[in-house]
Design a protein that fits this description.
Blueprint (H helix, E strand, L loop, with lengths): L5 E10 L2 E10 L2 E8 L2 E7 L2 E4 L2 E4 L2 E4 L2 E6 L2 E7 L20 E18 L2 E4 L4 E9 L6 E6 L6 E12 L2 E12 L2 E6 L5 E5 L3 E6 L2 E8 L5 E7 L2 E20 L2 E16 L18
């Protein structure tokens, strides 16, 4: 029995307006797989979950960096992944060396897909689509946070951004991690790099760092679908995620507009959607590695 908090992986598969994501994981109260799509969410308890290298076996399902094989009630299929696109370094920066309530990892910002998933007899074809993989572990999700991810744009681009209330060494702060891969470049905005959070709510995010200014306008299509979330190591909380949020992403570098992209199919979570406090650059945490 897993008895060390929680850990879960997020395998997202997207092709135009069709999205299916699986979340295999384990917590102190057992192993599970969650599934979310535009049509809703489902929760599956599985007898066990084991991890060997990059291979995760959860019940009759298998997930790895090369693909996934799904065998769940009403849901089956197989998808193969092309070469992954990892970040240059750990998205947590120097915070990876400290005990954290929730530790986040980005395994692949984008990779190609071949295969399909059948849900209740309906085939979801992901040939030529794009995938995304991340991981969370710890004891609990933040008490308030925003998270957004999208790789469905007219031009090649993948973005992940999270702004959250972070307990840290007996205190707390509003922290940010953001990674964007576009035009063959990786952009990183983060608390440990001196990011300034000018706005962070379910409809508008504005960040600046050095010569970069990022603005994201979001229009959630609804309240999203419910997913179980960890609270003190148990999957006893509930969050809501939408996989069809409309977003407009703009980024300037030295005042020059370098990104101006829209999508109607971003994944978005907003817990405690009132605006998180705006903060200035966190000088003690800056790290340019």
């Amino acid at each position: 029995m897993w008895n060390k908090g929680f850990e879960g992986w997020y395998f997202k598969h997207q092709k135009v307006g069709d999205t299916v994501a699986f979340i295999p994981g384990r917590a102190e109260n057992g192993a599970f797989i969650q599934m979310i799509s535009a049509g809703g969410s489902r929760q599956f308890d599985v007898p066990e979950l084991s991890v060997t290298g990059s291979v995760i076996r959860a019940g009759n399902c298998l997930f790895s960096w090369r693909g996934c094989k799904i065998d769940l009630p009403g849901v089956s299929g197989q998808i193969f992944y092309g070469p992954l696109t990892p970040l240059r370094s750990d998205i947590m920066g120097p915070f990876r060396f400290f005990p954290m309530e929730c530790r986040h990892g980005v395994i692949s910002m984008a990779h190609s897909l071949v295969g399909s998933i059948t849900i209740d007899g309906n085939v979801h074809d992901f040939d030529g689509g794009a995938g995304y993989i991340e991981k969370d572990s710890g004891t609990s999700f933040p008490s308030s946070y925003l998270w957004l991810q999208c790789n469905d744009f007219p031009a090649p681009c993948s973005i992940m951004v999270s702004v959250a209330h972070i307990p840290f060494c007996g205190r707390s702060f509003t922290g940010c991690i953001c990674a964007i891969i576009a035009g063959g470049r990786e952009y990183r905005l983060a608390t440990y790099k001196g990011v300034r959070i000018h706005a962070a709510n379910s409809r508008h995010i504005c960040l600046s760092q050095g010569t970069l200014l990022l603005e994201i306008d979001a229009s959630p299509s609804g309240s999203g679908h419910s997913l179980r979330a960890p609270v003190q190591g148990h999957m006893s909380g509930t969050i809501r995620e939408s996989v069809d949020t409309a977003i407009h992403v703009r980024m300037w570098e030295r005042g020059r507009l370098i990104l101006d992209l829209r999508s109607c199919h971003a994944a978005c979570e907003s817990v405690m959607p009132e605006e998180l406090p705006s903060v200035s650059a966190a000088e003690p945490f800056q790290d340019e590695r």
